[in-house]
Structure formats: structure tokens, C-alpha cells
Write a structure and sequence with these properties.
About 45% of the residues lie in helices and about 20% in strands. It is of the alpha+beta class and about 950 residues long. Helix 7 runs antiparallel to helix 8, helix 8 packs antiparallel against helix 11 and helix 14 crosses helix 15. It is elongated.
């Protein structure tokens, strides 16, 4: 690194020249330069006359020659003038004098040139520092710093140019005559400035700063001297006196708008005119920076204000959107209510759909409809869903909430205090569970209240408002009209059906009479032909039926064996999800769809092929010329493609599909029934593999069919010998680790294969309908075990088939009573399919069981439909999280499992439903479930399913 340049010593210039002369020589050098100014260098003891002589030479006097006892010279060096005067102790020769004069000129010229260069360098350095300071001030004006930080950094910039340890900036309003100290830094004065506080000038009459603002010109010097000069009295409140004080005003458009002050308490005369000029120059740039910063702050303030205005406008717009959406929901709800009166197949379905519509408008988890009986003496509840009052029995007209609304004919919005006040006044007497909030509106018929529609909340956090009351009242008016239309429509349908029956009966009588009048022989022949055709054809589609097809198959087998024809194939078709069509748009639409399917299949076949309807949604095709499976597969592809085209049925666009089984003729076939059976088996394989596809029957299917046939026979023998028993797996509390119950799992004690789990035979049991008999055998054994082991509850698995029986709940409760088991210790595990297959029937059964203390657990939650809308409609006690989700909790490759389990637990917590994690195999899974809020767990970690222990061995359970 280069060292800084050495400072040129001009004062020692005379001494250096004297060293080149005889000892005792006296030398004076003086000069005048534009950059260096006027100066002189004198050796010690030089007389004043010699100094005067040198200055005379500099002024223009001619040099003298005195025989070598003195040397004088004067010359100009660029813009500088130089003069030298010497006194010698002894005379020098003229040649020595001239040589010394040349040496002196060179030495003086070189020294002055160095000093001039040093002065230029210092000037450049000052210019560079000033430029950097101005750049820094400009950058601060555009920075994102707040004003306090900007001013603090400006202080640092000024401190780099001069002594500015004590520094402050003041703003001045010459119209309001006030000042604001924007920044104040002082090492002695403890006063703290508040930039936003305006100080009137009259509050600071003895302030030197105020004097500077009024004076309007820069001030420099000791503070006491400046006060004396400006006539300002001393006031200790304005801080201590300064040894040197420098202040410059800031001007905007010629008017004083502020000032910048630096001061020193220790060093007098530390500020120069150059510092004053520099501070004046910097002050204007600081003012520009402050103006830019204030403008930026004002712009940001305006942006914030405008943003706030836009936010307010947006909030108003959002409110309008919400109001419009609410109005649209209400309009859609009214349309749906009006539509329900025509589309609902039953009154119960109408009420159920009506509940769903109201639930979209307001909180309706607890909802019921009450109607006055025809004799006017009782009140009935045709529909009720309530989380506490599971069943509402009809009652006589008393002073209940519903009767209060009916008698008054007005809506009632009441909280507990309102209900208590009405009870105290004797106007009503509350019945059932006490709600936190209750809202009921009358259902009117011809202006008379004939019923009530009510919603209630058992949570203090869920309240109804006057808006809800107006909304429900408005909806109730339309519901009353819909009920009237529904009753009228039902009466009209009944009358129409009765009229059709009468017309049909009369028509038959007339036709019979007409037929009797015709020739009996012709009539008998036509009747015989019609009966033959009906016996061999389907009455709906007109296609051949099973009898006709089997006849053709038997004939084809015989011809193929006799080599009268080539190989052939049989296709067995079953429409996918056809039951959904019947359940959604009606059986008439389903029949229309079957007719169209038959037409589409028939038009794709060739001469010699036969399509038949076997019953329901099953069709079969005899392909008369199918030499190999490739031909059959090609025909099936065309059939599936044609079936997949859209079909308009009952005003709806449907996209039917089918599962197809293919059976190719083989020499082992002797009867058409065998071919049809194998094609049927192949069809079930296609349906199991995803539907809308085909499968070819092979030997593996034959072996599987034989196995299933043998398994069904074994299952029937096992039922007769009571070879089924429950195995019990513990369910534990995840927080304490205590066993709170057991699940009774079905096991078949096979005489050859030993204990078999349900997966080995449940499919055959479901298909054959034998699973219900098996379940009742296992239920009785599980109930017997409950009477011997009285700790915790026992859960049993209930097949969806049980919900097709109207007396399942009564039969189950009767069995519990017969064996002496406590119903409150029983839980039934059901699947989503069981709930949604026939929701009204399932709801009735669950309510009946719940009334006796039997709770329902929803098994394998998350793997089925997971239609969350049904959870609040059914009295579900707990959700069992499927083991496929639990298995992924400690697997980093399946983070979705954690998200799904967390969502299920959040849903259950919101609805107040318990949760049980299934398939817990590791401590990490159990801990994760516990931390997420799952209350109970079940799996190999806590115990494997075990046979029922002996009566005295309670610990094993």
C-alpha cells in the first residue's frame, strides 16, 4: 500500500539555501502564489532590513550587485513570484554567486511546485468527500428508512466533513411562526427533541436558533459573542454556551424554512469560513433530501388512505356479493321446495329433502316439523332429527313451545332466559331437552296455523338472529304451500290410480265381451300364439327370454357336436349401476333404458345371432359364428362402445355401461345352462375388475366357481353345526392405555382348515344370504360373553343386509334381554354403505337402538363414500379411522395419511364424535394418533384377536 505524500516544508526553505552558503550566511525567501498565497521563509537571526529587502524585490525593486557580499534575485515561476535576499560573512566570486543563484532558483521552483501539487491534491480530496456526502444525502432521500434514521445518517455524513459531534436540524414555518426540531444530538445538553411537536417562537425568546432564523444569514463564532452581536439574552434553558457555534439557514424559494447548526464546547475557532460555505452548500442538499423524504411520506400516506378507501369500497362490494349470494341461495331453496312437492316419492322423503334445504340456509342440526292432528287435540311429529331428543312421540295439545307458536300464529325466537320468563308467566311449559336457542315459525293453511317448523341449538356459541327468523318465516310460507301441493298431488295420484283401475277393469270387461262375440276358434288360436310368444319372450323389451335362449343354446351345442355348424360363443351382459337409475329417476325410466339397451345390442348382431333378456338388467347373446375369442372380443367391443353413447331417458342424459362375460364353446359343454353359467361367472369377474369391460371364462374361473360352490356347501353345514364363534380384540384409551372395550370378530372353526377369518368366506356368505344367519349365531355368543365379563363394552359388526329387515333392531334388543346382557355395553359397527343404501330405514333403526343405550360406530371411515353431509343426520357415536390411513402415519413417503387423519379428527371433534384408530401396530402410530386428538386405538400393538377366554379368566380378555 502506498504511503501518503510527505508534506512540503516551505518554512525550512531559507535554511536549506543557507546550508549551501558559507557558515553564518543570512537568507530570506518570500513568495506570492494564487494557490499558496503570500509567504516567507527566514533563517534565525535574520535582520528586519534583510526581510524588508526581500519583500521589496518581490514588489519589483531591481537586484543590487555589491561585490559578492550579498546575493539578491527575483523571478516569476508560472503564476508565482519569488524573491531571495542574502547577507554573506565573506565575499564570493562572481562565478560562485551565479552558480548559487541558479541552484537557489531550481530548489525554490521545485519546492513551490511540490507545495502547489499538494494543495491541488488536498483540494481534490475535499471535493471528493463533499461529492460522496452529497451522494449519500441523495441516496438517503430515496431510501426506505424512516425519517429518524435518515436524519441520523445525515448527521453522520456532515460529521465526515467537519466537527459535528453536537448537531441539530430545525424546521421553521414563517407563516405560523413555529419551529420543529427534526433532529437533535448533543453530548452535554440532555434535551430530547420531539420532531412532531411545534414550538411557537414566543416560547423561545432567548434562543440563538430563533435569532438565526430571523437573521436569515449564516452565523459563526462563540455563542456569547453571537448573542451580544444579535442582542439575545442568556437563557440556561437553551443549553450551555459553545466555544464555537456555526449555523446556516435553509431556504426554499428565497424564504427561510429551517436551519442546520453545529457547535463545539471545547475548541474555539474550530470552524472556518470554508466550513461555513461547505455547510451552506450541504444545507441546501439536506433540505432537498428532507423535501423528497416528506414528499415520499406524503405519497405513502395518500397511498395508504387510497388503499383504505378501496378496501372500504371492496368491503361494501363484498357485502353486496354476500347479500346477492344469500338471495340466490334463498331463491334456489324456494325452487327446490316447490320442486320437491312434485318429485318426492314419499312424504318421508319430502321431509328429509326439506331438512337438507333448510340446512343450507341456517343452522338446522336439530330440526323438526310438528303438525296438528286432524281432530285438533294432538300434535304429531312426522319428521324430527335431534342430537338429544332422538324420538319425539305424539302428544296431546299442551302448553309447549310448538303449541305456543300454533296458538299465537306468530314466530317465536327464544333463548333460555326468554323460555324461563314465559314459563314463569304460565304461558308455556317446556318439554324435552332444554335448548340454548329455539326458533319456531308457524306453518299456515288458509291463514290458520296447522303446524310448526322449528330449529334449535344446544350450544351457547350457536344463536339464531332476527334475520334467521325472517328467513325461516319466509321459507315456511313456501313450505306450507309445498305441503298443500304434495297432499293435493298424493290425493290426485290416488284418485287417478283408482280411475285407471276402474277404466282398466271396465276395458277388460268390454274386451272380454268383444272377444266372446268373435269367432271362438280364431280367438283361441291367437291366444295360443300370444301365450307361446309371451312364454318365450320378455314382455318389456320383446326380446327372447331365458327359456328361448336355452333352447337355442341346446340346439347350437347339438349342431356343433354333429359338425353341422362351427364353434360359437355366449356373452353375458349386466348393466353397471342400474339400481342407481331406478332409485334416482324411477322404475319407468329404468324400463325405458332397458328397452333402448336391447335395441342397441340387437342392431349390432348378425343373422343367426340371438340377444335375450334374462331378467332385471341382465342380457345374453348367442354369437352363432365365433371361431375364436378374437371375434367375440371384437363384437363385445362394438357393443360396449355403442352402449357408452349418451342416452336420453326421462329427460336426463345417461351414459350406460355394462360388464360382459364371454364363454367360448368347448366339447365339455352338453347343456346351454352350463355355457350361460360360465359366461355369468366371467361377467362377475369383469365387474369385480372395474366394470365397463369384458372377461373371458377360463379354467381358473371354473376352479374358482367350484371352490365357491364347495365353500357355500361347507358354510351351510357349519351353520347347522354352529361352528362360528367371536374372537375379541381389545380397544384401549390412548391417553391411559386402559382397555375400554373389545370388538367381537367373526371366526369360522373349519373342520379341515381350522379358524378362518371373515375374508375367506364373507363374499360367499353375502352372495348366498347366509351371512345373516352366521351373524345371529355370533351375536348370541358375544352377548353370553358380555354377561360373564362386565368390564367395558363390546362392538359387533352389522352387515348392510340387516338394515333391509324391518325388525332387526327389535330382534337384537330381544336377544340382549334373553341372555341378560346390558344394552348400554353394546356397540354396533356399520359401514357407510349400510347408512346410505336406505337412509330413512337406517335412521329409524339407529334411533330405536340409541333409545335403549346401544351406540353406533362408523367402521372403515374414509374408504367409502365419505359423504360428510350424512354425519349430522345419524346418531353416530364414534368414527373408526381405517387402518390404511393409520399405517401411513409413521411413513415419510405417505404424508397424505397424516393430513387425512388430521382432517377426520377435526371433523369428529367439531361434531362431538369419538374416534378410534384401527390397525395400530407401532408405538409411533399410537403416539401420533394421541397427539392429533384421537381418543382410542385398536390393533396388534395392544393385542391380537383371541378366542373368548374361560368365564373365570378375565385378564385374558
Amino acid at each position: 500500500m502506498a504511503s501518503p505524500p510527505r508534506k512540503v516544508d516551505l518554512a525550512g526553505l531559507a535554511g536549506m539555501l543557507a546550508q549551501s552558503l558559507p557558515t553564518g550566511s543570512l537568507v530570506v525567501v518570500c513568495w506570492s502564489d494564487e494557490r499558496l498565497g503570500a509567504g516567507e521563509s527566514i533563517v534565525d537571526d535574520a535582520p528586519e532590513g534583510l526581510r524588508a529587502r526581500a519583500h521589496g524585490l518581490l514588489a519589483g525593486d531591481p537586484p543590487r550587485r555589491d561585490g559578492g557580499r550579498s546575493i539578491e534575485d527575483a523571478w516569476e515561476e508560472g503564476e508565482a513570484a519569488v524573491a531571495i535576499a542574502t547577507r554573506l560573512p565573506e565575499a564570493l566570486t562572481p562565478g560562485s554567486c551565479e552558480a548559487w543563484r541558479a541552484l537557489a532558483r531550481r530548489l525554490v521552483s521545485a519546492t513551490l511546485a511540490s507545495a502547489q501539487a499538494e494543495t491541488r491534491i488536498e483540494s481534490l480530496r475535499k471535493s471528493e468527500r463533499l461529492q460522496q456526502a452529497l451522494y449519500g444525502i441523495a441516496d438517503l432521500a430515496g431510501s426506505g428508512l424512516d425519517m429518524a434514521q435518515v436524519l441520523k445518517r445525515i448527521h453522520g455524513v456532515v460529521g465526515g466533513l467537519m466537527s459535528a459531534e453536537n448537531f441539530y436540524i430545525v424546521a421553521y414555518d414563517d407563516l405560523r411562526h413555529t419551529t420543529r426540531f427534526l433532529y437533535f444530538a448533543d453530548r452535554i445538553d440532555p434535551w430530547v427533541a420531539e420532531p412532531d411537536t411545534e414550538i411557537p417562537l414566543e416560547d423561545m425568546p432567548a434562543s440563538l436558533t430563533v435569532a438565526l432564523l430571523r437573521h436569515g444569514h449564516p452565523l459563526r463564532g462563540p455563542s456569547d459573542q453571537l448573542r451580544s452581536q444579535l442582542g439575545v439574552e442568556r437563557d440556561a434553558r437553551h443549553g450551555p454556551d459553545s466555544a464555537d457555534w456555526l449555523g446556516v439557514p435553509m431556504r426554499r424559494e428565497g424564504r427561510v424554512c429551517g436551519a442546520i447548526v453545529v457547535q463545539s464546547y471545547d475548541l474555539p475557532d474550530c470552524y472556518t469560513d470554508e466550513d461555513r460555505a461547505l455547510l451552506e452548500f450541504v444545507a441546501q442538499h439536506i433540505l432537498t433530501a428532507l423535501d423528497r423524504k416528506h414528499a415520499q411520506a406524503e405519497l405513502e400516506r395518500r397511498v395508504v388512505a387510497r388503499t383504505r378507501e378501496l378496501q372500504q369500497a371492496n368491503e361494501v362490494l363484498q357485502a353486496e356479493i354476500v347479500e346477492r349470494q344469500r338471495a340466490e341461495r334463498l331463491q334456489r331453496a324456494l325452487f327446490r321446495i316447490s320442486e320437491l312437492s312434485f318429485t318426492a316419492e314419499s312424504v318421508e322423503g319430502f321431509y328429509n329433502d326439506l331438512h337438507a334445504v333448510v340446512g343450507e340456509l341456517l343452522y338446522a342440526r336439530n330440526f323438526y316439523i310438528a303438525m296438528v292432528s286432524s281432530d285438533g287435540g294432538h300434535i304429531e311429529f312426522p319428521y324430527s332429527v335431534d342430537e338429544r331428543d332422538i324420538i319425539r312421540e305424539p302428544r296431546r295439545m299442551i302448553r309447549g313451545l310448538s303449541e305456543y307458536v300454533i296458538h299465537s300464529g306468530r314466530a317465536l325466537l327464544a333463548d333460555r332466559d326468554t323460555i324461563a320468563r314465559l314459563e314463569a308467566s304460565g304461558e308455556l311449559q317446556h318439554h324435552g331437552s332444554l335448548a340454548n336457542f329455539w326458533l319456531g315459525v308457524p306453518l299456515l293453511r288458509d291463514g290458520v296455523a296447522v303446524g310448526v317448523i322449528a330449529v334449535q341449538s344446544y350450544s351457547p356459541d350457536i344463536a339464531f338472529t332476527v334475520h334467521d327468523q325472517k328467513l325461516l318465516t319466509f321459507v315456511a310460507h313456501h313450505i306450507g304451500g309445498a305441503l298443500a301441493r304434495k297432499r293435493s298431488q298424493d290425493h290426485l295420484k290416488s284418485a287417478h290410480a283408482e280411475l285407471e283401475d276402474r277404466v282398466e277393469a271396465r276395458t277388460r270387461e268390454l274386451e272380454e265381451t268383444n272377444r266372446e262375440l268373435r269367432a271362438q276358434v280364431s280367438e283361441r288360436l291367437r291366444a295360443e300364439q300370444r301365450l307361446i310368444h309371451q312364454a318365450r319372450h320378455d314382455h318389456l323389451t320383446g326380446l327372447p327370454n331365458r327359456i328361448h335362449l336355452l333352447e337355442r343354446l341346446d340346439a347350437a351345442i347339438a349342431e356343433t357336436r354333429g359338425q353341422a355348424r362351427g364353434p360359437f360363443a355366449v356373452l353375458f351382459l349386466d348393466l353397471d349401476r342400474f339400481k342407481l337409475v331406478n332409485d334416482s329417476v324411477g322404475h319407468a325410466a329404468g324400463d325405458e333404458m332397458l328397452v333402448e339397451v336391447g335395441r342397441r345390442i340387437a342392431r349390432l348382431l348378425r343373422d343367426g345371432d340371438v340377444v335375450a333378456r334374462l331378467g332385471g338388467d341382465e342380457f345374453a347373446v348367442l354369437l352363432g359364428d365365433a371361431g375364436d375369442e378374437t371375434v367375440a372380443q371384437a363384437v363385445v367391443g362394438r357393443i360396449l362402445a355403442d352402449l357408452g353413447r349418451p342416452m336420453w331417458v326421462a329427460g336426463r342424459e345417461l351414459f350406460p355401461s355394462a360388464s360382459v362375460g364371454i364363454a367360448m364353446w368347448q366339447p365339455r359343454y352338453h347343456h346351454g345352462e352350463d355355457l350361460l353359467r360360465d359366461a355369468d361367472a366371467a361377467m362377475y369377474r369383469a365387474k369385480a375388475l372395474g366394470r365397463d369391460r369384458s372377461e373371458l371364462f377360463d379354467e381358473e374361473m371354473r376352479a374358482e366357481a367350484t371352490r365357491l360352490l364347495d365353500l357355500e356347501a361347507d358354510l351351510r353345514r357349519a351353520i347347522l353345526s354352529d361352528a362360528f364363534e367371536p374372537w375379541f380384540q381389545p380397544i384401549v384409551d390412548l391417553a391411559t392405555g386402559l382397555v375400554v372395550g373389545h370388538e367381537a370378530l367373526l371366526r369360522w372353526n373349519h373342520e379341515l382348515q381350522g379358524p378362518l377369518p371373515p375374508g375367506a368366506f364373507i363374499g360367499v356368505g353375502e352372495d348366498s344370504g347366509l351371512i345373516e344367519q352366521v351373524d345371529w349365531l355370533v351375536y348370541r355368543r358375544a352377548f353370553d360373553w358380555m354377561t360373564r365379563h362386565r368390564e367395558g363394552y363390546v362392538s359387533i359388526n352389522v352387515s348392510p343386509r340387516h338394515f333391509h329387515s324391518d325388525n332387526f333392531a327389535e330382534r337384537l334388543l330381544q336377544m340382549l334381554e334373553d341372555v341378560g346382557a346390558d344394552p348400554a355395553r353394546l356397540r354396533i359397527e356399520i359401514t357407510e354403505v349400510a347408512l346410505l343404501d336406505d337412509a330413512p330405514r337406517a335412521l329409524r333403526m339407529l334411533k330405536t337402538l340409541r333409545a335403549r343405550g346401544v351406540y353406533a360406530l362408523l367402521d372403515d371411515f374414509g374408504t367409502g363414500f365419505s359423504a360428510l353431509s350424512y354425519l349430522h343426520r345419524f346418531p353416530i357415536h364414534a368414527l373408526k379411522i381405517d387402518q390404511s390411513f393409520v399405517a401411513g402415519l409413521d411413513d415419510a413417503l405417505h404424508p397424505e395419511s397424516l393430513a387425512l387423519v388430521r382432517a377426520i379428527l377435526a371433523l369428529a371433534g367439531t361434531l362431538g364424535i369419538d374416534t378410534i384408530g384401527e390397525g395400530v401396530e407401532t408405538a409411533a402410530q399410537a403416539e401420533t394418533l394421541r397427539q392429533l386428538g384421537c381418543t382410542m386405538g385398536q390393533g396388534f400393538l395392544f393385542g391380537r384377536p383371541m378366542p373368548a377366554p374361560a368365564a373365570g379368566d378375565r385378564g385374558a380378555a
